[in-house]
Design a protein that fits this description.
Layout lengths: L2 E4 L2 E4 L4 E7 L9 E6 L5 E9 L2 E6 L7 E6 L4 E6 L8 E7 L4 E2 L3 E6 L1
Parallel strand pairs: 2-11
Antiparallel strand pairs: 1-3, 3-8, 4-5, 4-9, 5-6, 7-8, 9-10, 9-11
């Protein structure tokens, strides 16, 4: 399966962005889809996930809970990450990942200016 992210960009602190991750196949009903944040000079961190045994159960990291919302549209094979109240420390490349297949997307850059 291939994953393609989009939706990154430059935004001021306090602003919002919505990232999309589209899979090449119909995997959302059987997979757990993950969003990772890779900040400059740091390790890649898991920030959100959706899906668990066919559910749409969501989980968030402590730094994103309350600001980020992960959702999916299985008809479009797409997972979304709505990011609100963005902070400069949210800057970095965001990747989606299929936990079942271990596949990563190419990433999309998010830059938050102060």
């Amino acid at each position: 399966v291939q994953l393609v992210e989009s939706g990154g960009g430059l935004v001021q602190a306090g602003g919002s962005l919505r990232l999309s991750c589209t899979a090449s196949g119909s995997i959302l009903n059987i997979d757990i889809m993950e969003w990772y944040h890779h900040a400059p000079g740091k390790e890649r961190d898991l920030v959100a996930s959706i899906g668990d045994h066919g559910t749409t159960r969501t989980e968030y990291s402590r730094s994103t809970e309350g600001r980020f919302t992960v959702s999916e549209d299985s008809a479009k094979n797409t997972v979304y990450l709505q990011m609100n109240n963005l902070k400069p420390e949210d800057t970095g490349v965001y990747y989606c990942r299929s936990r079942l297949f271990g596949t990563w997307g190419q990433g999309t850059q998010v830059t938050v200016s102060s």
